[in-house]
Design a protein that fits this description.
This protein is about 45% helix and about 15% strand. The chain is of the alpha+beta class. Helix 8 packs antiparallel against helix 9 (about 195-210) and helix 10 crosses helix 22. It is globular, with a radius of gyration of 29 Å. Strand 1 and strand 2 form a beta hairpin. The strands form five sheets. The protein has an eight-stranded mixed sheet with strand order 13-9-8-10-11-12-3-18, with helices on both faces. The protein has a six-stranded mixed sheet with strand order 14-20-19-17-15-16. It has four domains: about 1-50, no CATH class; about 60-130 and about 145-160, no CATH class; about 180-240 and about 525-725, Chloramphenicol Acetyltransferase; about 245-505, Chloramphenicol Acetyltransferase (2-Layer Sandwich). The chain contains 24 helices and 20 strands.
């Protein structure tokens, strides 16, 4: 108690005492300095944010263009050259009277209005241009002159160095497909999967829906598409993610792996320091909007998902979770040897350098301290179902030291987890890579904080992985010859503060039960990875086939060989060409080489349709939400949305920057990442086309399902890749 009171007393900036000698004022200079630095930094960030938003909001114009137009207008007015068609003279006589001051004022106001009008016309023009999608469908054949002219104009616009959010207001809304088109496309995707009787039944349900409540639901959805930036995204985030009650671990979170070969250093603290510093620099690029928007061809993607990359945590609720984002975070949360720490990353003036962060991390790694099982297993609470975690959080983490320590983790920029074992890739032993994937997907069930937007994971030999929470979205590293961080230590970094907890017997029982639940989930998932080096993107392009379509046909063949039937397949396609866009589902459809060409061409068309807002599943999902609001029952929508995705696939883009040429430096190629199976009797498959001669696959399934096996699917997939390759050997 005395220690607690002393800590509380030391946190008081001002104090005074009253005695016979008068009032004595005491204050803590160091604490006042910290408070001043915090206020100053917050003010500077607000000013910088306003300036950046202003610059992004007037793009492609600039503040200098405003100054130029005002200067020209004022100069011409003073030279008695009227460019306002008499408006300035009218305003002077009617409103202010003729004088030098009124002439100057009216000229500035008129030129400002002209500049604003030009800016709005320019942004409207950009928006209209970005609504054109014909160029996407012409990439596979000869491009028309009109499209070439369009691409040239867009390239000229992009020469103005856009900021991260320069195009946000100019991106078009996600178009709402007509009801008839969506229903027709839905039936087309089901034809290869249904027998005649099932197909006729589905056609009857579809016609009944189209001729009864379908048009009414479509009208309500049309109204929503007019009033919102994106008619899908908010409902998708709420109903698919935040209202989901199952555990995030394995069921929702996904993972990513480091490069297969190069790590830079095997010193754990050094690698952690550099990856932490690089992540914080990336956060600063986002905050300052210095990060350029990602382009598809020459058209920018929506950048809204960057906003919640850092300083974000998913807070559990009994019925629905919430995503909480803090505007700033000056610390990260670190898990090491079973304990949680709060590590400051800013000294009040600047970010800590990698060499300074390494000092802190070395202290944490080399410290010896007693850890209870409750403290070690605390993270397992984030690995159980959301309702149970919400109730435990409300009961045991609402007051006192538990609330304070929990807030330190949740409000951190991100979490950093030091693992006590080594991970690596061995081409002669697939179990090594499989184990690495397992540890990034779920760890031990208690050594990650699955609620955070992302966890950085650093192994004992310096390999890095990431585990990311899914609902909020869909750098150079330098070392000395010894593997330590380059740089001079200018300050003495503040030591990490170990977070304290109050574990009651009831809370201890809840944590022990959470560990059991997490272990049950972990034991039920099987991962199998492939790093396929016999051919890659180079060979596929020589065959004049879309790489994504080629891989999807391989997966269809593999699934058929594994299960002796086809199934409804989920492939995620992004819709970020539109404002607040996230994903849409591509449903692959369709002996030998000619049929492969046709199937790939049809798949590529479906993929482009999904990117252009002509998908099926998100539209039907929103119609179902409207029907729930209106309390209208639809057998068609219920059946469609209850269909299991037994083959859920996703492609990981290899590079979205030009920092590294992976053809020259193949050791920098990443194996990508993966996720857990969506259906209990299905497969979750992620793939990354890593280069001209490498393709990686991540296969997941449930161990307790008798009909699936990730290891068996891997062997079948390898055979399918070689069999399809043999079609082109001649």
């Amino acid at each position: 108690l005395a220690k607690t009171m002393a800590e509380a007393h030391s946190a008081v900036a001002f104090g005074f005492t009253v005695s016979h000698d008068g009032v004595s004022l005491n204050y803590d200079k160091e604490l006042l300095k910290i408070v001043y630095q915090s206020i100053s930094r917050s003010y500077k960030r607000r000013v910088a944010r306003f300036k950046n938003n202003l610059r992004a909001g007037i793009y492609p114009a600039s503040p200098s263009s405003y100054v130029f137009i005002v200067a020209v207008m004022v100069a011409m007015s003073l030279a008695n050259v009227d460019l306002s068609f008499g408006l300035i003279d009218w305003a002077q006589k009617r409103l202010f009277g003729v004088s030098f001051t009124s002439l100057l004022f009216c000229s500035v106001v008129y030129s400002s209005l002209c500049w604003l009008a030009i800016v709005q016309i320019a942004r409207l023009t950009i928006k209209l241009m970005f609504m054109y999608r014909g160029w996407m469908y012409e990439r596979l054949r000869n491009t028309r002159m009109a499209t070439k002219f369009y691409l040239l104009i867009v390239k000229l616009i992009l020469k103005h160095e856009p900021m991260l959010k320069s195009f946000q207001g100019a991106l078009p809304r996600l178009p709402l497909p007509t009801l008839r088109d969506t229903l027709r496309r839905h039936l087309d995707t089901l034809k290869p999967l249904l027998n005649d009787e099932s197909r006729r039944r589905m056609e009857r349900l579809s016609d009944e829906f189209e001729n009864t409540i379908g048009p009414k639901l479509q009208r309500y959805l049309t109204l929503k598409s007019w009033l919102s930036g994106n008619y899908v995204s908010d409902w998708w985030e709420e109903y698919v993610y935040l209202r989901g009650r199952s555990a995030l671990m394995i069921n929702s979170n996904f993972y990513g792996l480091d490069s297969l070969g190069y790590a830079g250093t095997t010193i754990q603290a050094a690698r952690a320091a550099n990856i932490t510093y690089a992540s914080l620099l990336f956060r600063r690029l986002i905050e300052r909007q210095e990060l350029k928007p990602i382009l598809i061809g020459v058209v920018p993607l929506c950048s809204s998902q960057y906003e919640r990359t850092f300083n974000t945590c998913r807070i559990p609720g009994v019925e629905i979770d919430t995503l909480k984002h803090w505007n700033d975070a000056r610390h990260i949360a670190v898990y090491c040897h079973g304990a949680w720490f709060k590590v400051l990353i800013h000294d009040g003036r600047r970010l800590l350098k990698p060499c300074e962060l390494q000092i802190i991390f070395n202290e944490i790694l080399s410290s010896c301290y007693d850890v209870t099982d409750d403290e070690r297993h605390l993270g397992s609470l984030t690995a159980i179902d959301r309702t149970s975690w919400a109730e435990i959080r409300q009961k045991y983490f609402s007051v006192g030291v538990n609330k304070s320590s929990l807030h330190a983790i949740e409000s951190s920029a991100f979490t950093l987890c030091f693992d006590e074992e080594e991970y690596f890739y061995d081409p002669n032993d697939t179990s090594k890579l499989d184990h690495w994937a397992h540890m990034n997907l779920h760890g031990k069930g208690y050594d990650r904080w699955f609620d955070k937007s992302f966890n950085l994971i650093v192994s004992k030999n310096g390999k890095v992985g990431i585990n990311a929470e899914h609902s909020w979205a869909d750098a150079p590293i330098i070392y000395t010859a010894e593997g330590n961080c380059i740089g001079d230590v200018d300050i003495t970094p503040v030591s990490a503060r170990r977070l304290k907890w109050d574990f009651t017997p009831e809370l201890s029982r809840e944590i022990a039960l959470s560990v059991q639940k997490a272990e049950a989930l972990i034991n039920d998932v099987e991962m199998a990875l492939i790093v396929f080096r016999e051919f890659g993107k180079g060979f596929i392009k020589k065959c004049q086939i879309s790489p994504d379509g080629f891989i999807q046909m391989i997966l269809q063949l593999t699934y058929f060989r594994d299960q002796r039937k086809f199934c409804l397949t989920y492939e995620a396609s992004m819709t970020r060409l539109y404002r607040e866009g996230r994903t849409e589902t591509v449903r692959p459809i369709e002996q030998r080489r000619d049929l492969l060409y046709k199937a790939c061409e049809k798949h590529q068309k479906a993929y482009l349709d999904a990117m252009c807002g002509k998908g099926v599943d998100r539209h039907l999902f929103c119609l179902y939400i409207v029907s729930c609001y209106l309390q209208l029952d639809s057998p068609f929508l219920k059946e469609v949305l209850s269909e299991p995705w037994r083959l859920s696939t996703s492609q990981t883009p290899q590079q979205q920057t030009d920092l590294v040429d992976t053809r020259k430096y193949p050791d920098y190629v990443s194996a990508g990442g993966g996720f857990g199976p969506v259906a209990d009797d299905g497969y979750g498959i992620s793939y990354i086309i890593g280069g001209e001669n490498i393709i990686s696959f991540h296969i997941s399934s449930k161990r307790y399902c008798e009909t699936t096996s990730s290891t068996r699917f891997r062997e079948t997939l390898l055979q399918s890749l070689r069999d399809v390759r043999s079609l082109f050997d001649d």
